[in-house]
Amino acid sequence: MPFHKSQLEAIRFGEGPALILAGPGSGKTTVITHRVRTLIAERGVDPSRILVITFTKAAADEMKERFLRLIGEDTTTVSFGTFHAVFFKILKIAYHYNGSHILRPEKKQELMRQVLAEVRPQVEDEAEFLSEISNEISRVKGDRIDLEHYYSNHCPEDVFQAIYRGYERKLREAGLIDFDDMLRLCDELLRARPDILAVWQKKYQYILIDEFQDINRIQYEVIRMLAAPENNLFIVGDDDQSIYRFRGAKPEIMLGFPKDYPAAKRILLSVNYRSRPEIVQAASQLVMHNETRFLKQLSAAASPGGKLIGKAFCNPAEEGRSVVKELQDYHRQGIPYEEMALLFRTNQNPRGIVEQLLRMNLPFSMRDVVPNLYEHWISGDILTYLLIAHGSRRRGDFLRIINRPKRYVHRAAFQEPEVDMQQLKKYYQSKDWMIDKLERLEYDLSAIGKMTPFAAITYLRKSVGYEDYLKEYAEYRRMQPEEIFDVLDELQEASRPFRNLQEWMGHIRDYTRELKEQKTERKNSGGIAVSTMHSAKGLEYQVVYILDANEGITPYKKTAGKADLEEERRLFYVAATRAKQYLHVYWTKEHYHKELPASRFVTELFGSKAVRLAEGGGGNRSGAGSGFEESRKL
Questions:
Q1: What SS3 class is residue 400?
Q2: Residue, of 630 and 552, whose pLDDT is higher
Q3: 50-61 tens-digit pLDDT
Q4: DSSP structural state of residue 81
């Protein structure tokens, strides 16, 4: 394939800083590998003086393999690596670190759990909480934020500070450094030791960075030191595909690069070699709604022939049935299942479609772990209430739900393995107000025991006050109540087909067993890709479905402020540009019997008139490469 003039300009670029804006599918890896070859073969640069940095080891390995194939050799002295690998190499020589000093992921989990056991935050979703707090710790370290002035997004400040300090203490006691420490220590070393910095500046005279839009502040500052004074800094990325702010990425660094390097050459790789023009045009129209970005005009190398299809469905179940049928139709037309992808905003969204795919026995692979709804702590609470209502007297069951909502019953009141309500009331016989609460509980349990699971959950939510408990918990965790109400809504909807608890529990056991089997069998096993938008980055498919494109789902309900909204739009843009020929964007008119409008991104992608046609009953409509269809109840 001949190079485009913008690719050649980047490949042949000479000395100094350069900003390469690489749109989706524009061949950035090809540009980087050919530029390295050109530096060596045409400009006489010593290969050992060239450093190529990527963000993941897999990407670094792939880049190196492509370069070796290009030059027809088995080895090279060009350095390919991640930021962490490069920075640790510097630390290893300066401080004699080795691999045993690096905190491994499993050890980090162990240390964090030890800290949680000491601090004892009031959290039920421990795994999710640990992930969120770990990201926040990375942000504090990576941005060098004063801990006393950091406002946590996931728990009270005193709790976050206690966890942070406990984690740091355990790291030092174990003689370990985490990935964030690698960056921080390298930064401190190079600032304090100009002689060491000079050695590495001489070593790496040409630095190329891929996916530059995902860089954080401390990574950038270290790279700036290493690149000086020649500043042969060749950065490649796309500000429109920056989707990792929650991990500490700073898209504004790329946007500010021309100010930091006024002499930098800016080159736009404007031709998309992946997608049809219809998809490139619509996606560009979408992302243009972001204000904080480089202006760019993109085009497609392929001829017209792509399709954008937008559909509104009555509910997620109907959406799922239609998608499964369409996937089968595409397969009958000769498109392999491996060339199809179903993209979702979070890993919780695919639960319904996964059940449909399993039921129809279609091959699929999951790029993310789809959590089991019935293993969520809220599901555990609800099911425990139902089990007690149907006769369970296990002490552990009562301890789980007795203060959800708050009844002020103390753990010491449960002294036997089996709970006797009369003995429990006897324990509080001197407190009439407690007797009233326990008698109310007895009444509620008796009522629940006579109901279908669906009705019982409604009763628990409204009459028992479980929703009030969740609101209090959400406030402590600094979440919107709707975030956890979604789990409750989904659980209740899942209970609807079952007449009694026994039927439902049988289904739960079967589903849990099947899902566990699928988790081991479906991981990267081929077939239809079921993925979050984040995990789909860098991939491409003939047919892409963006499902549940509704407000509150995408953009996600946590979105607050302009920066968050623009990141959500970039994420939708990334999802849309995975499609080579067919892009389906589907949304539902209701979600768990609550009205939910189409995402604003749907309007920005298709135009408001098209979305009104899709939702307003205009029948089947088609325009230039686009189809809109009103979906009716089956």
A1: helix
A2: 552
A3: 999 999 999 999
A4: E
